[in-house]
Amino acid sequence: MVQKSLELGKAPKLTIEHIAGDLHVKGWKRTEALIKTTCDDLVTFEQGEEITKIDCPEDCIVYVPFDATLQVKQVDGSARFRALGGMLEIGQIAGPLTLREVGSVEAGSVGGPLSARSVRGDLKIKTVAGSARVRDIDGQFHADSIGGNLRLGDVSGGISAVVVGNAKLSIAPVPWQAYSVSSSGNLSCQIPDDINADVTLESGAHSIRIKLPNSIEKIQQASYSLELGDGGTFIKLTASGKIDLIAIDAESESQEDFDLDFNFDFELGEDFSKMAKDMARQATEQVETHLKSLETQLSGLSKTLEDAGLSEERSKEIHQRVEDARARASQRAQEAAQRAQHKIERKLASAQRKVAREARRSARTKSMHIDIDALRSAKQSSSDPISDEERMMILQMLQEGKVSVEQAEDLLAALEGKGQ
Q1: Lowest-confidence range among 35-49, 244-258, 271-285?
Q2: Regarding beta strands 187-192 and 208-212, do their DSSP bridges make them parallel or antiparallel, or are they unpaired?
Q3: Of 71, 75, 108, which is closest to residue 86 (Cα–Cα)?
Q4: Partners of residue 64 on adjacent β-strands
Q5: To bridge 165 with a disulfide, which of 5, 149, 383, 402 should be the other Cys (CB 3.0-4.6 Å)?
Q6: Residue 149 burial (CB count, 10 A)
Q7: How far apart (Å, rounded) are the C-alpha atoms in residues 106 and 88?
Q8: How many Å apart are CA 187 and CA 244, to the nearest integer?
Q9: pLDDT, tens digit (0-9, with 9 covering 90-100), for 120-144
Q10: Chain segment 190-224, per-residue pLDDT in tens
Q11: How many C-beta neighbours within 10 Å does residue 289 have?
């Protein structure tokens, strides 16, 4: 693999015109762009007055400044973006699209599944041919069409999506946003039990189930509306199949809404203590990123409430809920750090067991070669034929995987005196 680099300066704008294979883009703290690929002579890497352009006829990895504004027009394979703080605009991705720790994203068409997590802004996509898993979005989520299933949770802003398959949602609506999801399959939605919302449910299968903390109601009709709390936030859920609306206690929310993402694969010979430190550092950085994002999001809340024209009493109520959310987020961060530590310990133990297995296997192999040589030497001075017990012992060792086929043949040859 060869690489090319180009100095871009501060707050650069970068356009990736066409990637004929897979694309992997990652942000870093440097002010230069770096492209890695196997087709050095065919890569177009030109710098204009305002925009730098990249064109590559094969798979490539591109490193760009963290705060770069990035436009990607066409990728013929899969695309993965990570650690980007600037605006990301995507035209057409022929395969799967993966987003991790990025800023606001606007995308056209995605030919495969979508996986998005830790988006620090809005996520707006026109079409996704496959299923979509979306989680931890600081802004709004919008999708004109999702061809498979949708699993969505922890979105701070409003939601608008049309889903061909089933939809499974976990949302915490806020008063100044709207929520609308339509599914051609079944739809399940979890909401906090203390929200204030006006909810409309429409089921093509005439099957609606509403589970509140103290009651379960089954409604066999096409449409049903209800007011939760004092009402206010607009929620509309539509499904060709059945609809489940489940109100849950905020304190019992799934731990899946705060987790850490590691990128470590253990190999033989690795420095385990160094890896443990690296994973611990990564866990700390991710927890801090989550909490900093929460603080940034909440810092402008007062201005938002003033603009919304809410009463003082209502504003105080929302502020209290925000503080409760902050406390829950902090608690989840601590729990995530503990889970990360357990994960580190499990991975290290697994890797060390792998090393021990390899060491034992190597020792057995070495020992077996010595035994073969010894047997061959002994057999040269002996005329006793190989016994049935010896044959059965070798076959049993082969069956148990203690020796390979070649080693078993060598043993038999040695015992029969054919290895001379």
Answers
A1: 271-285
A2: unpaired
A3: 71
A4: 27
A5: 149
A6: 19
A7: 6
A8: 6
A9: 999 999 999 999 999 999 999 999 9
A10: 998 888 889 999 999 999 999 988 889 999 999 99
A11: 14
- Coil, helix or strand at residue 9: coil
Q: C-alpha distances in angstroms, 335 versus 40, 119, 271, 285, 356?
A: 46, 21, 27, 15, 32
pLDDT digits (tens, 9 = 90+) for 15-56: 888 898 899 999 988 888 888 887 766 666 666 666 677 777
Confidence of residue 14 (pLDDT cuts 50, 70, 90): confident
Give the largest Cα separation in the chain, rounded.
105
What would the pLDDT profile of 375-392 be if each residue is shown by its tens digit?
555 555 555 566 667 777
Using DSSP bridges, classify how beta strands 208-212 and 233-239 pair: parallel, antiparallel or unpaired: unpaired
Q: Which pair of tokens denotes residue 93?
A: 């991705």
SS (H, E, C) 328-365: HHHHHHHHHHHHHHHHHHHHHHHHHHHHHHHHHHHHHH
Number of Cβ within 10 Å of residue 29's Cβ equals 8
What is the model's pTM? 0.61
Beta bridge partners of 170: 153, 190
Residue with tokens 């010894």: 374
Q: Using CA of residue 81, residue 83, residue 85, residue 86, what is the dihedral sign?
A: negative
- Chain centroid offset of residue 289 CA: 16
Residue 298: pLDDT band with limits 50, 70, 90? low
**C-alpha angle 268-274-276 in degrees, rounded to nearest 5:** 90
Q: How far are the Cα atoms of 21, 67, 264 from residue 5, in angstroms, in the given order?
A: 20, 17, 26
Say if CB 100 and CB 118 are below 8 A apart: yes
Contacts of 285 by beta carbon, 8 Å cutoff, 6+ apart: none
Amino acid occupying residue 227: E
Q: What is the pLDDT of residue 231?
A: 83
DSSP secondary structure of 137-173: ESS-EEEEEESS-EEEEEESS-EEEEESS-EEEE---
Q: In this predicted structure, what is the pLDDT of residue 263? A: 46
Helix (H, G, I), strand (E, B) or coil at 89: strand
Place of tokens 């006829």: 57
